[in-house]
Task: inverse folding
């Protein structure tokens, strides 16, 4: 197994059926994918294409890659009724998430008012001319959505048995190192050293949304990165954590965010709607709920 | 039989022909050398008037905004590129540093640990 650092998290790559040299070469290939993607789409890099788009005051021509990501995001926005919305960049900055996250670095004594509401549907995407125009108040943040897509791209290039784990957004392919599936430990949001439940997966992706790690102090309260697009502020949910298992990391990532915002009851209902989807929901009172297509091996 | 010396025409020998040829070539060489050497000699003598020397070679590039609007060409940029004012400095480009791939510790199990990140 090989690791590298990208998108402000540790990425682990394993391909147990390959030779050591081939596994390392594959890990390097994945690292390059992450690096190239981050250079184009990071909102924290002033030289990224996304930063240029967020600075533009008129219509701008975008790359084919950017166009594809924006169109995919729009589909999720529409499917989620706007609960998934990458137009939360200004809200994240107002909440204090104005630079790459480091524990403690975002702490502040004052809290800013939320910005005027912005909706991703206000973004004008002209596929014919590959031009995009945004309202000036609309700033795009592709965050975890992009990480999920990158994991999916890496998995598409992976050998039959492989794992790509980008800080908890992961895809597992094949039967795993022991031939009986890949094991996935679901972390306890109240105690990162404790595993709540272990799942066994084959050819699946997994992603988690929780406010327990990317959080910072604003005055006497704590803010986090899960913005509710309806309010433009860090979400208040009856859930402490949602882990979703789906066919792709992109879909798992979006569903985890939406389920978190919908809360324990509606979130579980959302995950149960799709037979290909499963999940583990942890309520704020610690109640554990396992939903849909997941195999629990240890609880 | 007798021979009249007055009417006798002297016939050139091969040696004499060679002498004439060498003399002709030397004359041509001298004339050509003189023609070529004349300007250089003049400069060396400092006789020529000083002339204005361009301060820089002809410009191979021109800023787009120096061209009158009516004469500006249409610039077709690749996707993702834009034409900016020359006064605006492009954002600094960070040096390329590929992520360093390292071997995971042996103690780390080959399994996923979910967390929000």
Result:
């Amino acid at each position: 197994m090989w690791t590298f650092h990208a998108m402000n998290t540790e990425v682990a790559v394993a391909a147990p059926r390959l030779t050591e040299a081939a596994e390392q070469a594959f890990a390097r290939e994945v690292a390059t994918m992450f690096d190239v993607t981050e250079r184009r789409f990071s909102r924290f890099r002033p030289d990224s294409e996304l930063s240029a788009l967020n600075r533009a005051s008129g219509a701008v021509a975008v790359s084919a890659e950017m166009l594809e990501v924006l169109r995919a995001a729009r589909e999720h926005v529409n499917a989620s009724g706007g609960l998934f919305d990458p137009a939360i960049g200004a809200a994240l900055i107002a909440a204090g998430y104005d630079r790459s996250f480091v524990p403690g670095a975002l702490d502040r004594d004052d809290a800013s008012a939320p910005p005027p509401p912005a909706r991703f549907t206000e973004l004008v995407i002209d596929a014919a001319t590959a031009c995009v125009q945004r309202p000036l108040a609309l700033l795009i943040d592709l965050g975890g959505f992009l990480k999920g897509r990158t994991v999916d791209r890496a998995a598409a290039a992976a050998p039959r048995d492989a794992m790509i784990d980008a800080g908890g957004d992961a895809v597992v392919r094949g039967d795993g190192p022991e031939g009986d599936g890949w094991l996935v430990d679901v972390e306890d949001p109240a105690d990162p050293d404790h595993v709540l439940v272990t799942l066994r997966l084959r050819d699946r992706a997994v992603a988690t949304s929780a406010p327990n790690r990317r959080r910072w102090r604003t005055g006497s309260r704590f803010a986090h990165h899960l913005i509710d697009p309806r309010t433009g502020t860090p979400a208040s949910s009856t859930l402490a954590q949602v882990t979703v298992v789906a066919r792709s990391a992109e879909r798992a990532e979006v569903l985890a965010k939406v389920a978190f915002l919908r809360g324990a009851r509606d979130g579980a209902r959302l995950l149960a709607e799709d037979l290909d989807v499963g999940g583990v929901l942890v309520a704020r009172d610690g109640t554990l709920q396992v939903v849909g297509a997941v195999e629990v091996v240890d609880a | 039989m007798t021979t009249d010396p007055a009417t006798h025409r002297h016939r050139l020998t091969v040696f004499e022909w060679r002498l004439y040829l060498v003399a002709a070539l030397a004359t041509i060489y001298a004339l050509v050398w003189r023609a070529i050497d004349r300007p250089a000699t003049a400069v060396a003598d400092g006789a020529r008037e000083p002339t204005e020397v361009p301060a820089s070679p002809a410009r191979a590039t021109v800023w787009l905004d120096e061209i009158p609007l009516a004469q500006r060409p249409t610039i077709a940029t690749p996707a993702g590129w834009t034409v900016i004012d020359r006064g605006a400095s492009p954002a600094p480009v960070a040096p390329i540093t590929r992520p360093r791939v390292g071997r995971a510790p042996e103690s780390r199990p080959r399994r996923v640990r979910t967390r929000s990140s």
About this structure: Strands of chain B lie at 102-103, 112-114. The interface with chain A takes residues 77, 79-82, 91-94, 98-104, 108-117 of chain B (CB under 8 Å). The CA atoms of residues 75 and 83 of chain B lie 8 Å apart. The two ends of chain B are 132 Å apart (CA to CA).
